[in-house]
Write a structure and sequence with these properties.
binds adenosine-5'-diphosphate; 5 strands; Rossmann fold; 192 residues; 5-stranded parallel beta sheet; alpha/beta
């Protein structure tokens, strides 16, 4: 198995690059943000619990997120690997993921850090808002999400850096050029 975490602030291009990675490397995509939005649109019990949290741009509690993630992994026993998008977002989630994968004889092989400036993120999300209709793309909710990123999620990086797993990729520029750099990082990690 080859397991990858795609990491970066809101609007870094995680979703866009994930779609290209899945296509080329045939990994199963797990986006916790997409999963929460699906639960909300289907008005499930979980959806009801997290709706307001997402609308406010806050992080969903770890216990809910970790349970949902682990169930999704268990539902896909025959894949050649996973790309985790939007997870882990806290050190607690990262530790839980390591323990969980270890129990399956698996591990995270690579963490791709998409590096983007705060100014670029804000521009992109303002653009995305015009087409996505995502309530959490509003200016004040976006600031909240960026806040959550810099107060909680950023600490996930040293966690994986200590394991020597992080490759930083410049996330600004043409989508295909960024993807090219990502492919190099994946191909290198695969032969290691
Ligand atoms: P973006 O791509 O803009 O970073 P996502 O689609 O990944 O946003 O996530 C949207 C929202 O879903 C987050 O703001 C948060 O409320 C919730 N969420 C997603 N993943 C997690 C997670 N791993 N832990 C806690 N909350 C999460």
């Amino acid at each position: 198995m080859f397991n990858l975490v795609i990491f970066g602030p809101p609007g870094a291009g995680k979703g866009t690059q994930s779609a290209k990675i899945i296509d080329k490397y045939k990994l199963a995509h797990i986006s916790t943000g997409d999963m929460f939005r699906m639960h909300i649109s289907q008005d499930t019990e979980l959806g009801k619990r997290v709706k307001q949290i997402l609308a406010d741009g806050l992080l969903v509690p770890d216990s809910i997120t970790i349970d949902m993630l682990e169930e999704e992994v268990q539902r896909n026993p025959d894949v050649s690997g996973f790309i985790f998008d939007g997870f882990p977002r806290t050190v607690n989630q990262a530790e839980a993921l390591d323990t969980f994968l270890e129990g399956k004889g698996e591990k995270i092989d690579l963490v791709l850090q998409l590096d983007v400036t705060e100014a670029e993120i804000k521009d992109r999300i303002a653009e995305r808002k015009k087409v996505s209709g995502r309530a959490d793309d509003d200016e004040d909710k976006l600031l909240k999400r960026i806040d959550e990123y810099f107060s909680k999620t950023i600490h996930v990086l040293p966690f994986y850096q200590n394991q020597g797993k992080v490759v930083k990729v410049n996330g600004i520029g043409q989508i295909d050029l960024i993807f090219g750099t990502i492919c190099e990082a994946i191909d290198n990690a695969k032969v290691d």
